[in-house]
Amino acid sequence: xxxxxxxxxxxxxxxxxxxxxxxxxxxxxxxxxxxxxxxxxxxxxxxxxxxxxxxxxxxxxxxxxxxxxxxxxxxxxxxxxxxxxxxxxxxxxxxxxxxxxxxxxxxxxxxxxxxxxxxxxxxxxxxxxxxxxxxxxxxxxxxxxxxxxxxxxxxxxxxxxxxxxxxxxxxxxxxxxxxxxxxxxxxxxxxxxxxxxxxxxxxxxxxxxxxxxxxxxxxxxxxxxxxxxxxx
Length: 232
Ligand SMILES: Nc1ncnc2c1ncn2[C@@H]1O[C@H](COP(=O)(O)OP(=O)(O)OP(=O)(O)O)[C@@H](O)[C@H]1O
Ligand SMILES: [Mg+2]
Fold this sequence. Notes:
232 residues; alpha/beta; two-stranded antiparallel ribbon; 8 helices; binds adenosine-5'-triphosphate; binds magnesium ion
């Protein structure tokens, strides 16, 4: 796919021809320098932005070419998002925030799964609190629980640890990895941080709007080395 922003003189080629697949039940990290097209790629994959050419598929379904109603349904029923601002609703409790996507979709909440996820992210005794009554790390765990309980086919995360101290960030990454290896979710996460990337099963490197390299079973050292090589 390609993605060009603006027109004529102000054209920006954010994606110059990316051809890539992501495995189900796999945790993939996307890395690359600032401005290399990572967020653009994520937004195009998630149906939040349109592509200029090419196509995006989720399983058997082509996302590119869907109309607005189909895209809304896709994002509601099949995709989860964990962004830096966790998009929790301030007037709802943690429990209500976690259930919200399912309520909106008119789907049943799987109470077993709800209990299991909430215990796993250590929120069992915080369910009746509002976001303002929770720490940053707890708010983030609410966002993770919300993404897990609604069982989306893919979870997209853009710099989810960007604003966190290293302990809280490591916690979040542990939960993301758990959701892949224990709950069978599929995660695609953009990050700048070699340590964060090392939690993934696979790291994909983007530069100047192109896919340039990948690693599997990455360690922080190998990720850092690869970043230096690709940027140097
Ligand atoms: N809405 C937009 N309109 C015009 N140009 C844009 C828009 N969004 C992004 N761009 C440009 O597209 C290019 C890729 O941006 P993108 O946000 O995908 O980069 P990134 O890899 O996520 O960077 P960062 O690591 O800084 O978040 C940049 O040159 C950016 O300025
Ligand atoms: Mg970005």
